[in-house]
Specification:
Elements lengths: L5 E2 L10 E2 L5 H9 L7 E5 L2 E5 L5 H21 L3 H24 L6 H24 L5 H25 L6 H4 L4 E2 L1 E3 L3 H23 L5 H23 L5 E3 L4
Antiparallel strand pairs: 1-2, 3-4, 4-5, 6-7
């Protein structure tokens, strides 16, 4: 789908059907002027401005690939194939670095969907890793439960924000259509730090049986640091909740 893909049709309902820019050079010219730096177009739907963007960007594809690697990693860890699991984890980390680098340096690769998809992919990957590492007795149950509860609460908040920022009619097809951009998420600084600490603990835990330091006191110290950053991150979202969401729709 090209970056200029927008809704088309006559009247208010026409902006809800997929299509290209209206016919004629003038329509293309007007649409081109409306293209925001993310490679999207803004269309009017029922009196509201509705951003309609191309979801098939390279960063979004990399985020989806990271989601796909999550069950593979979980299976490898449960089967105690830690050498291969460590390699797949490094691959997942590379996709995370790449999607952020591409989105920052190429304006047409940025998207509102990506602002939610990237952290969602991280949360799915981290959740699967912590559950599987707990099953392998490498991470305590209490820490994994804390992380899962936080992530479930954040994902529920994302679905709620999506519902509140989607212009009427709020149908299931429009709600789950990634082309309709309604809000952009901005994670807090402590949340970014927490994600980094959680991933460091995962890497250290995966490497522990490979390099024989499962009972290391340093690993147990890292459990405590991860628990602290997880709680602090959850509080930061509660305290700065509204500041972490930038609504795209405008009346």
């Amino acid at each position: 789908m090209p970056s200029w893909y927008v809704s088309r049709g006559s009247g208010a309902g026409g902006a809800e059907r997929g299509g290209c820019v209206g016919s004629g050079p003038l329509s293309v010219h007007r649409a081109a002027r409306a293209v925001p730096p993310t490679g999207c177009l803004v269309a009017r739907s029922r009196g509201l401005l509705q951003q309609y963007e191309n979801p098939w960007t390279i960063p979004n594809i990399l985020s989806m690939a990271r989601m796909g690697l999550a069950p593979v990693l979980g299976y490898l860890i449960v089967e105690e194939n830690f050498n291969v699991a460590l390699g797949v984890f490094v691959l997942a980390g590379v996709t995370d670095l790449l999607d952020g680098f591409i989105a920052r340096n190429w304006a047409n690769q940025k998207s509102a969907l990506g602002s939610a998809l990237d952290p969602l992919a991280d949360k799915i990957l981290i959740s699967v890793l912590y559950v599987s590492l707990t099953c392998a007795n490498l991470i305590p149950v209490s820490l994994t439960s804390m992380i899962i509860l936080r992530d479930v609460a954040l994902i529920a908040a994302v679905f709620y924000v999506r519902y509140k920022t989607l212009s009427p009619p709020r149908t299931l097809s429009r709600y789950f259509n990634p082309c309709y951009a309604t809000a952009q998420l901005k994670p807090t600084f402590i949340s970014k730090m927490n994600t980094a600490v959680q991933l460091i603990l995962v890497a250290a835990s995966l490497a522990a049986p490979v390099f024989n330091y499962v009972d290391s006191v340093y690993l147990q110290t890292l459990w405590c640091i991860t628990a602290f950053t997880t709680v602090t991150s959850a509080y930061s979202y509660y305290h700065y909740g509204r500041k972490t969401v930038q609504v795209i729709n405008n009346k």
